Amino acid sequence: MELKIFQDALPAAGTNCTLKAELPLQTELLISDYLPPVFRLVKCFAKPVVLQKRLQPGKLQLEGYLRCTVYYQGEEGTGLCQTEQKLPFTKLLDLPEFLFSAWAVQVEGQTEYLNCRTVNSRRIEVRGACGLVVSVHTQVRTDVITALADGGIEQKLTTLSGVRRAATLEKLVTVEGELNFPSPPAAILDLSGNVTIRELKILNGKAVAKGELAVLCAWRAESETALQSQSVTLNFNQVLDVDGLSEDCRCLCVAEPVGFTVAEGENANQLTATLMLQLRAWRPYQLQCVADAFSTQYQTEQTIRKLSVETIACTLEQTVPLKGSGPLPDAGAKILACFASFGPALLAFQEGRWVLTSRVTVTAFGENSLAELESYEKSLELVLPLDVDAPQEAQLCPECWLSAEDLQCSSAGGTLEVTVSVRAEGAVIRRTEVSCVDTITLGEPLTPADPEISLRIYYAQAGEELFAIARRFHVSPGRMLAANELAEGTETLSQARRLLVPGA
Question: What is 447-501's CATH number, 3.40.50, 3.30.70, 1.10.20, 3.10.350?
Answer without folding.
Answer: 3.10.350
